Amino acid sequence: MHARRGRPWKLRWISEIPSIRHFAPFLPPGAVMEPKEPILLSYDEFEAVKLVDGEDLSQEEAAKRMGVSRGTVWRLVASGRKKIIKAISEGRELFIVPQAPVMVREEEKRGLD
Predict the structure, then answer these.
(1) How does 44-74 read in b/e, with b if 16+ C-beta sit within 10 Å?
(2) Quick one: pLDDT band at residue 96, thresholds 50, 70, 90?
(3) Where are the domains of the chain?
């Protein structure tokens, strides 16, 4: 699988496929909202934000867990944060979707990290 152009995607390790992959804004009864294009957050963006912001890992530690460079983690976190904020601030649906090839770590699935 290739990115839009250039180098092929590098395999990225994630701890799990998110069980909840759709978030939608809550509208009070009777409220009407103009339809907006949903935001798509990739599994690897979600994993990077979860590791850095949710588990307080450094970008270097997150990069080791995901099997990518620190720079890649930095880009994934920046992109993921931007998408999450946009979904919340603009009242858009957020979908967590596959994009780059990912592998689930078996030791993470068994809780042996």
Answers:
(1) bbbbbbbbbeeeebebeebbebbebeeebbe
(2) very high
(3) 12-16+39-110
